[in-house]
Amino acid sequence: MKKIKFYLILLISPLCGTAQNWAPLGNGLEYAAFSMFADSVDNRLYIGGNFRYAFNSEDTVRVNGITAWDGNKYVALGEGNAAGNCLVICPPIRGIARFQDEIYADLQDVPSGDDIIYGIARWNGERWDSLQGGVKTSSGFAGEFYSILSMEEEILVGGLFRQAGELPANGLAIWNGNTWKAFDFPGRGFDSRICCLSRLGNDIYAAGNFIVMAEEGETKDIARFDGEKWHAVDGGIKGGLAHINAMLVFQGQLYVAGFFRQSDGNAGNKVMKLGNSGWEEVGGGIIGSNADVHAMAIHNGGLYVGGIFDQVGDGVPAQNFARWDGQRWCGFGNSFSDRVYALASLNGDLFVAGWFGYIDGKRFNGIAKWTGGDYTADCGSINRTESLEKEPISIFPNPATHTLHLGLNSLQPEGAVLAIQNAAGQLLHREELALPSGIQQYQVDVSGWPPGVYFLRLQAGERQVVLRFVKTGTG
Question: The whole model's pTM is what?
Answer without folding.
Answer: 0.79
